[in-house]
Amino acid sequence: PLLPIVAAAVDDPVQMGLVTSIARPGGNITGVSGAFHGLVSKRLQLLKDILPRAQRFAILFNPDSVPRQVLDAELPAWKRGLGAAIQLVAVRGPDDVDAAFTDIVKEQADGVVVFADSVLWIHRARIGARCLEHRLPSIWGHAGYLDAGGLASYQGDFSAVMRRAAAMVDQILRGAKPGDIPFEQVTKLELVVNLKGARTIGVTIPNSVLLAADEVLE
């Protein structure tokens, strides 16, 4: 028999093809989302708040986690909201990183939003090094990524996610079917600002962003 799965800290389980619906996941899986629809636009807006004169942003994503067509559908709204161009750049593994940044620099992006993803997590040091090399401000998906030099992160509280995932495992061990347990969304998002990373590339973080931050890394 298939083992039950509790997925923790994914962005949108429906978009990623993990479940058929949030309320009734079906199959043999349930879990907790770090954030649902709208998180990417908030990360983009955060980058715009830090760089109000920016005209072009890049989004670094893994198409094996989030299909390109899903992001393509959101692009018009993101562009209108920001008044800026947005470039989608796919990274499936380490061999794609250098080519991705060649494209980003060629298109003269002012900043980068990096998705929270297991592949991008593994290669965060390499991605962060390219951001620093090209003096590109970057917004990531969780404070754990910021050791690579990113400016800020905006994502659900991972500690809360893991606690809820543990509670779901307990339900399953007591006999509940994973597919009958609704996928949950974290209720608290965390903004972490990395002042050291900002100083490294010569970017000043506005006071409005600092005041909104849950944590500021010196």
Describe what is shown at a glance:
With 218 residues, this protein is α/β, with parallel strands linked by helices.
**Overall residue-averaged pLDDT value:** 88
Number of strands: 10
Question: What share of the residues does DSSP label as strand, in percent?
Answer: 15-25%
State the secondary-structure class: alpha/beta
What's the order of the H and E elements?
EEHEHEHEHHEEHEEHHE
Which word captures the global form? globular
Question: Percentage of helical residues?
Answer: 25-40%
Over all CA atoms, what is the radius of gyration? 18 Å
Biggest sheet descriptor: 7 strands, mixed
Sheet with the most strands: spatial strand order: 4-3-5-6-7-9-10
- Uncertain runs are none
Continuous helix count? 8
Cα distance spanning the termini: 50 Å
Walk me through what this model shows.
This protein has 218 residues and is α/β, with parallel strands linked by helices. The chain has 8 helices and 10 strands. It has helices at 39-50, 68-82, 97-106, 118-122, 124-133, 158-173, 195-200, 207-212, and strands at residues 5-10, 29-33, 56-61, 85-90, 111-114, 138-140, 152-156, 184-185, 189-194, 215-217. The strands form 2 sheets. A 7-stranded mixed β-sheet has the order 4-3-5-6-7-9-10, sandwiched between helices. Strands 1-2-8 form a 3-stranded parallel β-sheet, covered by helices on one side.
